[in-house]
């Protein structure tokens, strides 16, 4: 500045322009910049009807040096006790109206190597208004039974429990794969299942009813039927022998079928998948997962078998956006430094310095 002899600043015309010193700039370091959370804009709602979710990207940012503003590890913002903005929020679109809801497919009932049909329950979410029959998901499909190389294996017989007619020997009977893995008994042929209970006692044993253990209930939930094998059997000349039922006619034949009840029928139902949250790149799609007992919405379903309610959807890569002709550099960002260190490919600088990066791109 130009000053008078008494130190008062005066107009530059009173000083000799030729002797004016060059202005001096020097770098000085202020205190370290605090980190901060920055969030991208919210995505579209994950559902086009009903209640869905919106997502956004939340990152921790910090000015590391003059002009170098960069995303950093989230721990820096967390340690600074900064409240992280939410990355997900609920969003409501107009009500969906009636929707088809489907349960999981039942287990295939086919014997080994055979074909059969398997079913699932399909219900309409709204009992007062009908779902569109044209969009009803299938409730029946073809299925194939397990491979046929299953075979029965048995353990050694246990000790005899008493005298003939009352004495029994018990052993374990398993259905196994060729590799030795135990599988459900339904995968082996029940017609040639070895006996698991055997009479024992005196050398000769008159024919009497011999009941095997009950098979598993034929349903996984609710009321079903269980069966067991009943033989008229005895020991003749030291050998086990099966007789016609008439030989045991003096006593009442034990029941070979009975009702059984497994746990209540809680079932997971799912609605159709929503649209992907993105139209390109990788997005998310959602569906409702509900637990029903009959028509009642309940909480009793097994959480381990709960179908997934959210999954990523990968679409074709997003096209690169053409540069915005009217964009301006952000005044708070040192874009000249960003250009020097070639940061235009970084998503933050491509936007914050869009004008400078566009000019460089045109020259290239």
TrEMBL record:
Predominant cellular place of this UniProt entry's protein: secreted
UniProt keyword annotation of NADP present: no
Ranges where the PLAC domain occurs: 323-361
Gene Ontology cellular component annotations, sorted alphabetically: extracellular matrix; extracellular region
Localisation: Secreted
Keywords of this entry: Repeat, Secreted, Signal
Pfam families assigned to the protein according to its UniProt record, in alphabetical order: PLAC, TSP1_ADAMTS
InterPro entries the record matches: ADAMTS_ADAMTS-like, PLAC, TSP1_rpt, TSP1_rpt_sf
Protein source organism: Myripristis murdjan
Name of the protein in question: ADAMTS like 2
Tree of life domain: Eukaryota
